[in-house]
Design goal:
Layout lengths: L9 H11 L4 E2 H8 L3 H13 L3 E8 L2 E8 L1 H18 L4
Antiparallel strand pairs: 1-3, 2-3
Organism: Frankia umida
InterPro entries: WH-like_DNA-bd_sf, WH_DNA-bd_dom, WH_DNA-bd_sf
Protein name: Transcriptional regulator
């Protein structure tokens, strides 16, 4: 498989990589880890969700409403394939 066009965007690649390491993360935690605005993160989460790579759920945490984001199985598979393609591209780099 080749590079995944959706995961070529640096923020989406970083977002998917963060989500791959956990079962889910709170929107605010993701925003802070990525250093982006709410609107930028929302747009990137929407793109991943529409592709079936991520899912979100609303809930409460410490008496406040929040959104939790998780990578789906297809998202994990796409990320693994994308990373493998990146590794193949750089395999001969010193």
């Amino acid at each position: 498989m080749g590079l995944d066009a959706l995961l070529n965007a640096p923020v989406r690649l970083r977002l998917a990589s963060l989500l791959a390491a956990v079962s889910e993360l709170e929107f605010v935690t993701l925003r802070e880890a990525l250093g982006v605005s709410d609107s930028v993160l929302s747009k990137q989460v929407t793109a991943l969700t529409q592709a079936g790579y991520a899912r979100s759920r609303k809930g409460t945490h410490q008496d406040r409403r929040t959104t939790w984001i998780a990578l789906t199985r297809p998202g994990h598979e796409a990320l693994r394939a994308h990373v493998a393609a990146l590794r193949a591209i750089i395999a001969d780099v010193d």
